[in-house]
Amino acid sequence: MRVITGSARGRRLQTLEGQEVRPTPERIKEAVFSIIQFQIEGRRFLDLFAGSGQMGIEALSRGAREAVFVDSRKDSVQIIRENLEKTGLGQQGRVVNMDSLAFLSQPNGKFDLAFLDPPYRTGLLEKALEMTSAVVKPGGVILCEHPADEELPAQAGDFVKRRDYRHGKILISLYRHKDVVGS
User: Fold this and answer.
1) How many CB atoms are located within 10 Å of the residue 102 CB?
2) Are 41 and 63 in contact (CB under 8 A)?
3) Residues spanned by the domain of 46
4) Known CDD domains for this protein (predicted)?
5) Is residue 6 part of a domain?
């Protein structure tokens, strides 16, 4: 796993080993960042269920102002901190070791971009999506990674599903505020 482009381009990232861990494949990461490529610079990025932190680190490498990494596992949080240090992006990253739903229920400011990739088929994604819609700015974007055979709601709060991007067995669902025109 590596940083694709930007200031930390090519840097290898560590990830946890084991069956409970499912890092976002590089082809999916590339797809996500091609979708939002012109919306990253200077923005605030939420990497929920962060794992190794690769999505938030990619956003920082591409010019995001700040990335907040949330994960409930202590070992994941340690890996995220090491990856931030290794890439030289630690000053712009905030790592939070807590349950993602608990994080969303506290005041943490508004985000421009949010990436949600919880453990598959646990029901967490639907709950997190609804709660995330309350912490993303109206001009922002919510991206969800999930199995292609799992349908997400058409709307979460004031955010509407605008498009699904299929990549084999993985789907990326894009949500924008109901008042924002376009996909």
Assistant:
1) 12
2) yes
3) 26-143+161-177
4) AdoMet_MTases (cd02440)
5) no
Q: Counting Cβ atoms within 10 Å, is residue 165 exposed (0-12), middle (13-18) or buried (19+)? A: middle
Pairing of β 136-147 and β 66-71? unpaired
Question: CA nearest 24: which of 177, 171, 134?
Answer: 171
Task: Enter the tokens of residue 94.
Answer: 């905030």
Query: How far lies 72's CA from each of 24, 79, 182, in Å?
Result: 17, 12, 35
**What are the tens digits of pLDDT across the range 101-140?**
999 999 999 999 999 999 888 999 999 999 999 999 999 9
Residue 66 domain-assigned? Answer: yes
3-state secondary structure of 54: helix
Token pair of 136 as six digits: 């993303």
Tell which residue, 55, 85, 48, has the closest CA to residue 69: 48
Q: Are 114 and 135 in contact (CB under 8 A)?
A: yes
